[in-house]
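Dear support,

Our group has been running a series of protein-ligand predictions, and this particular one with zinc ion is the one our PI (initials K.S.) wants archived with full inputs and outputs. We had some confusion internally about which version of the output was final, so please treat the block below as the authoritative record. The input we submitted was:
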Amino acid sequence: MPSVPPKCCINPSILSADFVNLEAELARISNADAVHVDVMDNHFVPNLTIGLPVVERLQKVSPVPLDAHLMISNVDRWAPQFADAGLSSVTFHVEASEAPIKLARELRARGAKAGMALRPATPVEPYLDMLSELDMLLIMTVEPGFGGQAFLDVMLPKIRRARAAVDGSGVDVAIQVDGGITEETIIRAAEAGANVFVAGSAVYGKPSPADAIESLRANSQLAFAPTTLQFNDIALQQA
Ligand code: DX5
Ligand code: ZN
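Confirmed final output from the archive:
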């Protein structure tokens, strides 16, 4: 477990918000680090959400930066347009991209952070040589497509291996987890090495989304709280 926590971000997913009133729903999470916007095309995943015109409007009214998660086919064609809309970060699925390095470079050239997502059964190892091309690696902790699913604990070793690779490479790549993040599972995900946490139902399913964000933020730091053993070590060193 790292002793110094990497910068932690809580990114609520508007998939669990009220789609009739998205501007008001964004205002309820103004203490978030970013808002996670799930774009689905009913092809890459068996669900359909919003597309570029709605995302462009969200970008104009959001009090926090937009973090798009593109669960779409033909992503090499579409993702650059999301970057052109001024989004803070644009994440594509590697399984949907013909040329992920080219795409990541295109996103960065257009001013967005480049994120790359892996479905649960996609191993991280084949992509470790391209970490320097990325700003964020998204390790899905549910099968993409729907909110409210249970966190897949079998993803924890993959998060650990990704964290070890990122730390070993010396490049500044955030590790995002998405799916089933709750006040409980966020502790395990943070301990494994994730530092950007997407939460849909655990934020918008609560009476106060803003309070839910702060609880998640606090729990993500529990993984880095000094243990009794560490306290004793310090006491011994000082004695
Ligand atoms: C699922 C989406 C998630 C979803 C998470 O495919 O990518 O962002 O909103 O929802 P929860 O946090 O409820 O699992
Ligand atoms: Zn998502």
